[in-house]
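Subject: Sanity check before I submit

Could someone independently write out the structure tokens for this chain? I want to compare against mine line by line before I put it in a report. The sequence has 286 residues.
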Amino acid sequence: MTRRLIVTADDFGLSMEVNEAVEEAHRKGILTSTSLMTAGPAAEDAIRRAKRLPDLGVGLHLALYGAPAQAPADAIPYLVTPAGDLDGRSTATGVAMTLSSAVRRQVHREVEAQFRAYRLSGLPIGHLDGHWHCHQHPWILGIAIEVGKPLGLRTMRIPYEPVRPSVLAAKGEGWARRIAHAASHWSLAAHMRRRLKVNGMASNDWFFGKNDAGHVTPGLLQQMIAALPEGVSEIGLHPATGPWSGDHAPPPDWQASGELAALIDPDTRAACEANGVRLCRFDDLV
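---
Independent answer below. Compare away.
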């Protein structure tokens, strides 16, 4: 069995700094995929860049919390803050979805609005992933499949980071946290696999970067590549050319420019070649 690797930059369209990094990492480095935040302040610029990068796989970065909203605020009152952005209380929103059909209808409206905006971009939909991995939530997953499948959605990220290669890549750093995270998310990943299989949709087998978001150095990325298990893995990153300000600025401790440096480091591509890892996109899975 071969080892294939999708390398994705999330938050495309959130800022010019992210957009510039996505283009640079694809042209100069190993980035094969990105996911568009349709309501992001720099979404129009992201769409223009994607159209001049035909080999870059692009998908929908579905956002239900902690991001700009696509639907009008009066259509999704529970989901938004007074400023009109999607609320960052992910746990509260998740519980409310489970308990309230009214909240689920609002989620459906926001998901529909984001898919509609993506279609209007004219870009093919290569895959779906989620801001803060929101699409793991069983209700969000079901709504995303219901809305996206008729529009051509055929692949989706399963954000499950296996323990052994994660610990090996990090050289033991945070081993307890990595084990706890895998244990607490195993059932969600299993549910996702079942739902996607029933709907004839493809996915990655493994995901890396979840435990190290915003802190992936060139060395760590190269260690991840060396530790990849057999099958299709995805490494998800958040590169940017630098920090930016505003309501959706990155956490102050994130090293987004360091993640860009990791993607374009010549030793990173050499690590893929040395370990027999073949780069691919979600489109290549179907």
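---
OP: Matches mine. For the report I'm noting this point. The chain has a mean pLDDT of 96.
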